[in-house]
Design brief:
The chain is α+β, with helices and mostly antiparallel strands. It has one domain. 55% of the residues lie in helices and 16% in strands. The strands form two sheets. Strands 1-4 form a two-stranded antiparallel sheet. Strands 2-3 form a two-stranded antiparallel sheet. The longest helix has 41 residues.
Length: 85
């Protein structure tokens, strides 16, 4: 609850600071409550995307490629796709 200017003026400086902090805390609490459904939706969508992406593209076999200077790096030859259905 916001305090009126007249009420804040009648308070001591320490009490005034505390009242302002309490007001700020209440404001933050309201904002967090208001964005909570949006956060839940994003979390649900993120989990759905993550579960759908798991195991979709994985290298099946690798072959070594010589890059000339003695460096041999693995290279994927084909990608594994999940079974349909």
């Amino acid at each position: 609850m916001a305090y009126r200017k007249k009420t804040l003026r009648s308070m001591s400086p320490t009490t005034r600071k505390l009242a302002r902090l309490i007001g700020e805390l209440e404001s933050v609490e309201r904002r967090l409550k208001n964005i909570l459904p949006e956060i839940k939706d994003h979390e649900f969508e993120s989990q759905a995307l993550q579960s759908s992406m798991e195991g979709q593209i994985e290298p099946q076999a690798t072959e070594e490629v010589d890059w000339g200077e003695g460096q041999i790096e693995p290279q994927a030859t084909e990608l594994a796709l999940p079974p349909k259905g």
